[in-house]
Amino acid sequence: MQLPRKLRNTRWNSASDFYDSNRSPLPLMSNREFFLHRYEEMGWEFRDIRLKQSIRVHTSNAREKHVIQRLESRGVALERIPFLENGYWVQQSRFSVGATVEYLLGFYSIQEAAAQIPATLFNEPRNGVILDACAAPGMKTVQLADLMNNTGIIVALDARRRRLRALSNQLERCRVRNTIVYWKDARKASQLDLKFGCILLDVPCSGNFLLEENWFEKRSLRDIERNVRLQRQILTEASISLKDDGEIIYSTCSLEPEENEFNIDWAVKNLNLKVENIDCYGREAPTEVFGKQLDESIRDCVRIWPEQTQGFFICKLKKRLCIL
Q: Dihedrals φ, ψ of 121, to 5°?
């Protein structure tokens, strides 16, 4: 369905602006054409992309070279991912790489390439106390433990009890020894009465069209606005639980600016946080979106459009300390 010209030519600063201006039926806010027009306005043109499966080697459990040799000897064709330290694209395999002895022994995990980036951006995770606030199904928790070489402590939370089983299974498979798992909503993280030097917020989000069939038909701006409320509550709790010199890594696999740039702009203006520059794969985030001018520091966030990987957004935040 094609968007009416009136809607195609209108800029919406937020989901609420759209609803305030137009009370049209839901399909006008949820079809493929509507979302692709938004992405085009942000500077990205849609193209058909086929995601490549990727793995990450756990160097705390096995030597990387040894794992790669074992897989290649069985006919698995691998290509090193240039922007990751221990990541490889699976170019070809006659069998599922999730059913090998090496996988079951925790030598590697199957993890999308862009999703491997956030956990690597903490300055000094070893021997620290880290909060993984939305941990299930556990890929990033396992990656954090690997980066920490099983030192320090990871406190892993998830709000949904049934997802904790998947998280616990991943931790057991990968021989993680430094993680405590809680059945707790990240919006209540401050109830732990702990201060963390590193907080990973891979928050629940709208996802993107590469991850879910018929995504365009299933999503609407109302869904996005609901996610934004949840994400801001989680950001608020994280800011309370952060040490004065600590770091927050905020990430989503959403392409929607309301869940990304707009959220960080809000956090900078309301939570006494500042954006830190990060050096990783992706593009500089825009500071003007749909006609709305954002804080200039937003350019230090990273937006990854679907090209070599799925879509992703990543940002590092620190407390803005008052100098007396």
A: -95, 0
User: How many CA atoms within 13 Å lie on the side-chain side of 16?
Assistant: 6
Per-residue pLDDT tens over the stretch 83-115: 999 999 999 999 999 999 999 999 999 999 999
Give the single-character DSSP code of 179: E
Q: Which of 174, 253, 301, 315 is catalytic?
A: 253
Q: What confidence tier does 29 reach under pLDDT thresholds 50, 70, 90?
A: low
Catalytic residue status for 134: no
Q: Residues for the chain: how many in total?
A: 324
Phi, psi of 52 (to 5 degrees): -90, 135
Are the C-beta atoms of 52 and 46 separated by less than 8 Å?
no
CATH 3.10.20.740 fits 54-110, yes or no: no
How does residue 30 score in pLDDT terms, banded at 50, 70 and 90?
low
pLDDT for 48 equals 85
Q: What is the pLDDT of residues 243-270, one digit of tens each?
A: 999 999 999 999 999 999 999 999 999 9
Domain covering 115-319 assigned CATH 3.40.50.150 in the classification: yes
CA R_g for the chain: 20
Q: Which helix (H) or strand (E) holds 168?
A: helix 161-173
Distance CA 137, CA 168 (A): 8
**How distant, in Å, are the alpha carbons of 83, 113, 170, 208, 283 from that of 308?**
11, 9, 26, 15, 13
Q: Would you say residue 23 has pLDDT above 70?
A: no
Using omega within 30 degrees of 0 as the cis cutoff, is the peptide bond preceding 257 cis? no
